[in-house]
């Protein structure tokens, strides 16, 4: 009992210290960055002068990357999870695949960057394009989506499957109309976690050739690009105080972007959970 109480108080103490440090960090960022955020900061191109520098190219590049990553990773991840959970044989090979998918979720992101550089940039000759970056981040988030989707599918009671099959539905009709709608909210939670991780990644994108300075807005998936985390990293490495303020403002925009994505997904999940009860 004494050890349990000691561990409990130690965990509370560490959590409190972490929250205090986070609060101080956010206070410092917001106190510096809010004074810089205006319409010019959002619509201006990068510049060597901090008072003229903006995040337009980085913001559009990030939107391109996130959109393509969602379109590539989500269908593949959900389909792979459905196959592994509903169709594959429960043999040693299937267990080997399951273990490796779980392990891939913990692989450092720089490894995915090296893989993307070799496969997408050099082998497929996509260059340092938006598409190459999106494919690399799709590899990064696929294990998270697969694992989360499999756990969501497992949570659906077998009685629903048996009732559907008993009424004459095929296995695919059961999955399409019963299983996936019933666990859609949990699947969406996994997608939220995966995309939130992708938004903040810089190492894989730097490895595949994302640029620090891009004087134009990407128009197609084959254009060169930069993203907001890379732009923030570039500004923090500059000695001028104005770029430090710009970095703080960029962090605020990045946080708002992540919160917006999460809020949309949470609203969709809650609306779905209200309609689906089992």
TrEMBL record:
Subcellular location: Cell membrane
TM segment ranges: 6-27, 55-84, 104-123, 130-149, 178-195, 202-218, 243-268
ABC transmembrane type-1 domain: residues covered: 59-265
Recorded GO MF terms: phosphate transmembrane transporter activity
Main subcellular localisation: membrane
A Gene Ontology cellular-component term: plasma membrane
Alphabetic keyword roster: Cell membrane, Membrane, Transmembrane, Transmembrane helix, Transport
Coiled coil residues, start to end: none
Stored PROSITE patterns: ABC_TM1 (PS50928)
Gene Ontology BP terms: phosphate ion transmembrane transport
InterPro entries for the chain: MetI-like, MetI-like_sf, Phosphate_PstA
Keyword hit for Transport: yes
Membrane topology qualifier: Multi-pass membrane protein
Family membership noted in the UniProt record: Belongs to the binding-protein-dependent transport system permease family. CysTW subfamily.
Matches recorded under PANTHER family: PHOSPHATE TRANSPORT SYSTEM PERMEASE PROTEIN PSTA, PHOSPHATE TRANSPORT SYSTEM PERMEASE PROTEIN PSTA-RELATED
Protein name, entry field: Phosphate transport system permease protein PstA
Source species of the chain: Solitalea koreensis
